[in-house]
From TrEMBL:
InterPro entries: Thioredoxin-like_sf (IPR036249). Transmembrane segments: none annotated. PANTHER family: TETRATRICOPEPTIDE REPEAT (TPR)-CONTAINING PROTEIN. Gene3D superfamilies: Glutaredoxin. It comes from Zarconia navalis LEGE 11467. The lineage of its organism: Bacteria, Bacillati, Cyanobacteriota, Cyanophyceae, Oscillatoriophycideae. This is (2Fe-2S) ferredoxin domain-containing protein. Pfam families: 2Fe-2S_thioredx. It comes from the Bacteria.
Amino acid sequence: MPKIDRVLVCQNRTCRRQGSPAVLATFKANPVADVTVEGCGCLGQCGSGPMVLVLPEETWYDRVQPGEVVAVIEQHLLGGQPVKAMLYRKFHPSR
């Protein structure tokens, strides 16, 4: 599995209305060494946000709330295991 180096948090209109600025702020308040967290434009999944995309492995999380960010950081970014209960089923149906 490639080393995680980037996390994108959609900041486009729909995700913003669904709370993505707070999700991005929570990621930035809990930095992980060698992982860049940044806001991005539309990820093409409007209505399922806030969307979070972990790269380069392309792990998608949908409807992420600020209180769930620490679980993503601890279990996935630091622990190497995606948070199965939070995975976006459209792209991760079998997990």
